[in-house]
Amino acid sequence: xxxxxxxxxxxxxxxxxxxxxxxxxxxxxxxxxxxxxxxxxxxxxxxxxxxxxxxxxxxxxxxxxxxxxxxxxxxxxxxxxxxxxxxxxxxxxxxxxxxxxxxxxxxxxxxxxxxxxxxxxxxxxxxxxxxxxxxxxxxxxxxxxxxxxxxxxxxxxxxxxxxxxxxxxxxxxxxxxxxxxxxxxxxxxxxxxxxxxxxxxxxxxxxxxxxxxxxxxxxxxxxxxxxxxxxxxxxxxxxxxxxxxxxxxxxxxxxxxxxxxxxxxxxxxxxxxxxxxxxxxxxxxxxxxxxxxxxxxxxxxxxxxxxxxxxxxxxxxxxxxxxxxxxxxxxxxxxxxxxxxxxxxxxxxxxxxxxxxxxxxxxxxxxxxxxxxxxxxxxxxxxxxxxxxxxxxxxxxxxxxxxxxxxxxxxxxxxxxxxxxxxxxxxxxxxxxxxxxxxxxxxxxxxxxxxxxxxxxxxxxxxxxxxxxxxxxxxxxxxxxxxxxxxxxxxxxxxxxxxxxxxxxxxxxxxxxxxxxxxxxxxxxxxxxxxxxxxxxxxxxxxxxxxxxxxxxxxxxxxxxxxxxxxxxxxxxxxxxxxxxxxxxxxxxxxxxxxxxxxxxxxxxxxxxxxxxxxxxxxxxxxxxxxxxxxxxxxxx
Length: 637
Ligand code: ME8
Prior knowledge:
Layout: E1 5-13, H1 21-39, E2 43-50, H2 55-64, H3 68-85, E3 92-95, H4 99-114, E4 118-128, E5 133-135, E6 153-162, H5 168-177, E7 182-183, H6 185-196, E8 202-203, E9 205-206, E10 222-223, H7 225-230, H8 232-235, H9 244-249, E11 254-258, H10 262-275, E12 284-287, E13 290-292, E14 295-296, H11 307-314, H12 316-326, E15 333-334, H13 337-367, H14 381-400, H15 404-425, H16 427-430, H17 437-458, H18 463-472, H19 508-519, H20 537-541, E16 545-555, E17 563-569, E18 572-578, H21 586-589, E19 593-597, E20 603-605, E21 608-610, E22 613-614, E23 616-618, E24 623-625, E25 635-636
Parallel strand pairs: 1-2, 1-11, 2-3, 7-12, 11-12, 13-15
Antiparallel strand pairs: 4-5, 4-6, 6-8, 9-10, 13-14, 16-17, 16-19, 16-25, 17-18, 19-22, 20-21, 23-24
Ligand ME8 binds at residues 11-14, 22-23, 25-26, 51, 229-230, 232, 257-258, 260-261, 289-290, 296-297.
């Protein structure tokens, strides 16, 4: 029986370039929560997607020399591939360039317009292109964006405005009367004081570029990208024209967002919904950033951690575990390879990996691979059972607060206790004495049971690992259910089968070196001069290019930069003066076969005649010969 609906969203990502580990952090949390709620019996709707309009995307596409849609199609393909690799269980993926979204954003705009909350005016302000955000004079102090610190530009245009100021009191009332609406508290206090300082009306259209959703009431304007993007949370549900899912899932239980976009989600979005007379989301949760030593990850600074490389090396679950376990929700945290590798080694290879392999091996060795039934309780049995049976409730309580790290810690308390149970009961010693056989069987049963519980508890966080454990325990036939955690003594007669180590031990030093090499910032892309204007074939055909062999070469007597070369070209030897003295010594040129522009009008260069020109490859700093094996005198065409 369904426990009700649960609607969770991630931000929709900008497909300006590929996503880094910081972006995956939010999606991994949302995925864990979605799976957790499903496991508990909720009817879950998990939405993610991409935010594809706006000046920034238009700019990036133009720089790449392709259309915006070509650009976003390519990047979005990569993002979907990444989520597939990471086993992200989203129920829908909304792209803001989809027709279903466009028409519904326009419908929402009209609803707000007809309410009288949208009016036309003139906008002048400071605009941060990378953030797509307009700022007031005080906000953009010193000409810098208060979010990202990059320079802002003055922008002025005739535009449509949303009466955000009208909703100021309602928003203050919302933050004050419903502290749960925005968490953590630090963010709520920040937004409360932001709202109390006074909200200006918001400019919600642009006419300086066209990559956006057209304003339905006037041509030549596109809807501000944040209005467009925020609407995704209801357009994906079919609002307003196909309201079945909307009626079922809205209002959202939670919008998970990064701390820098809390303002958009807790002020602008609720005000838009109030204007359209729609219910507000139940909760907005702002998470912290994953930082690198030296600051925030940024593609343009070349300091990003690529999740794909980590997954290829350590697997999806190791990365998910690390992200969920290491960082405290709401706070910033530092990423280092070392911290990650230690987590993988201590928690995954040592604690969990060992428990699985020891348990399965001992059941194989001491009972022919069959899980024995429960037996009389003795020694540490009661404590182990109690801990295992209490785990579900504790994990639930932490998950209610989005404390993923503490939820996992709770599971690891059980894992570590079970490992300790092995040491305390010493099955290898029991196996030596036939009289202890019953006790040995009870111990094996309890180990299998505890591990079964662990496999259920882990399922929302590390689905594949949970599956591997269950397969080794002979539980492959059943998907785990939360209710499986209610009883301890249920296993009897399952056939265990040892598999590969679920998390092999890592050589931290060697891995550190390998990761260093993998994540070394790529060389900045070299810039090449643009291709010159097109010419006709006839223009090209006028050139007479020949192969020549350099017979001798000496310095020009009167010019430091010039060399004087004698070049054999078929039956003729001619003198060519070339400006290459800074790049080659005279003797380095001798014997080289080169391409010559043979019909270039002869010129006198500082008193020496030059008949033709030798071609070189030029990388801006140095020259290289364009050599050939062909015989001198042959034509090049
Ligand atoms: O803001 N650590 O998109 P976006 C943690 N399109 N989170 C990080 C991070 C890091 N190092 N870097 C980025 C947008 N993020 C809008 C959203 S929603 C209607 C529109 C998070 O691709 C960031 O905090 O720039 C944000 O929540 C998310 O990635 C998307 O960022």
